[in-house]
Amino acid sequence: MLCEIDILSESDVAVLVSRAGRALRQVAVPEVEVGRLLTVCSELARNIARYGNHGVVTLDVRPHDGGLRAVIEANDRGPGIADIDAALRDHYSTGGTLGLGLPGVRRMMDVLRIESNPGKGTRVRVEHQVVRRKPTR
Questions:
Q1: Contact between residue 131 and residue 67 where contact means Cβ atoms under 8 Å apart
Q2: What residue ranges define each of the domains in the chain, with the CATH number in brackets?
């Protein structure tokens, strides 16, 4: 596990982004992919801070098919998502936001899985294949 952060408030989002960025750079993830993964981490953590009451975001990177496979999980104990299909549509929001977060996460990642139980919380797992930098001569 590269990084695991408890999310209780918006300030924890900044801690997550900082630590995850350092960890991703230490395992030589290309900078453009670092940006993509940090955007996803930030979005999932903000959702926990806004809606989930308390949760945890984890980030891991593993060797996979000649590159790296990034896995991000966000688990919370919030009210859950009543309509997952609606939450994945652009501009759908229950919190007065632009409603682009989860749809954007889905577009940036290769795999998105959401499990939600009303009153018990939500688990979001995303995966993305990262192409390693080729060595320069």
A1: yes
A2: 3-130 (3.30.565.10)
Tokens 């982004």 belong to: 17
Residues 6+ apart with CB under 8 A from 26: none
Q: How far is CA 38 from CA 93, 100, 122, in A?
A: 22, 16, 20
- 16-53 per-position pLDDT tens digit: 999 999 999 999 999 999 999 999 999 999 999 999 88
Q: Alpha helix (H) ranges present in 88-125?
A: 101-108
Instruction: Write down the residue that tokens 């984890």 correspond to.
Output: 58
State the Cα–Cα distance between residues 94 and 87, nearest whole angstrom: 9
pLDDT confidence of residue 125: 98
Torsion of CA 7, 48, 68, 38, to 10 degrees: -80
Angstrom distance (rounded) from CA 17 to CA 3? 10
For the whole model, what pTM was predicted?
0.89
Residue 20 in contact with residue 37, Cβ under 8 Å? Answer: yes
